[in-house]
Amino acid sequence: MSIVTENEKTSLLGESNLTKERPSKNKKADTSRPRQSKPYSQRFRNGSAWPIIAWIGLIHVGALAAPFCFTWSGLITAVVLFYLTGCVGITMGFHRYFTHAGFKTIKPVRWTLAFIGQLAGEGSAIDWVATHRKHHAHSDGEDDPHSPQDGGVWAHIIWLFPHHTGPEKDELHMRWAPDLRKDKFIWFLHNTFILWHLVLGAGLLGLGYYLGGWYTGISMVVWGMFLRLTVLLHVTWFVNSATHIWGYRNYETTDKSTNLWWVGLLAFGEGWHNNHHAYPRMAVHGHKWWEFDLTWNVIRVMRMCGLVWNVVDYKQKTKDGAIKV
C-alpha cells in the first residue's frame, strides 16, 4: 500500500500542465504523431470488468425504450436529474470540489455532493476522484487512464472495460484519493453504489404511478434513469476524448488538452479543458468572456449564500502575484 508523502499531497489536487504563463501560439489542437500505446493484451491482462460492462450495457439498452414511453413527466424528470447529477454532482462535486479542492464547504454540503454525484452512474466519489487525479498527473502520458493517444474510442469508453484486481483498486484509492477513503460516509456510499440507483428507480416508479399510473411510472424510470444516464455518461466521456483531440488552446501545456465549445455547453463548462489543465485548481473553467461555464455560476451563487468559501477563482501565483480572471 502506497504512503503519500507531504510533498505529494499538493500534487493530488492536480499539478498544472502549463509550460508558460502566456497564451498558446498553437491555437489549434496538437495533431502530432501519437506516442506508442500499450497493446490491448497488456491492458486486459486481468480479463474484462464484466460488472461494469453489464452496467453500461444495461443503461444503453434501457435507453432504447425512451421513444416508446414518452411523457412530459418523464422528460422533466430526465432534465432535472441530468442537471442535478451532472452539473451539481459530477462537475461541481466530484471534479471541482473533491478532486481539485476548488472551494471549501460544510460537511452536509460535502456529503450531499458525494451522494448526488454517485447518482450520475459514473462510480463512487472515491473511484472517480482517484482516476481523475491520476489522469492529471500523467495527462496524455503512458500512465494516463484514458488518453486519446491510446485511441479515441479507448479514451471515450473502452478504458473502463479492463478488470482491475482488489489490490490494484486499493492501490489506486490509497495513492490518489486517501482523503476520501478516510471519510466514513463517502466510504459507505462507495460500498452501496448500486443500492442508491435501485432506490431512485423505485422512487421514480412509485411517483410516476401516483401521478398517472404504470405508464407514467415506467416513463419516468426510462427517461429519468436509463436515457438520462446514457446521455450523461457520454457527455462526461467526451471530456476525456474529444477535448484531447479537437478544439483550440488558450495555453501551452505539456499535454494535448483543448477547449471545445460544444463540450463546454453540454458538460456544464467542463469543455474548456485546456484552461483547466493549465490551472486545475481553479473553480472557474471559462477564461474568455465567451467561454460560458454554468458550473462556475452555480458555485458563485452558493458562495453568495455562504455555502462555499475559499473559492479558487484566480490563476496560480506567478512572479507578478495572483492574476484575477
UniProtKB/TrEMBL annotation:
Fatty acid desaturase domain span: 73-293
Chain positions covered by the region annotation Disordered: 1-43
Similarity annotation: Belongs to the fatty acid desaturase type 2 family.
Superkingdom, taxonomy of origin: Bacteria
Key words of the record: Fatty acid biosynthesis, Fatty acid metabolism, Iron, Lipid biosynthesis, Lipid metabolism, Membrane, Oxidoreductase, Transmembrane, Transmembrane helix
GO biological process: fatty acid biosynthetic process
Protein name: Fatty acid desaturase domain-containing protein
Compartment(s) of residence: Membrane
InterPro entries: Acyl-CoA_DS, FA_desaturase_dom
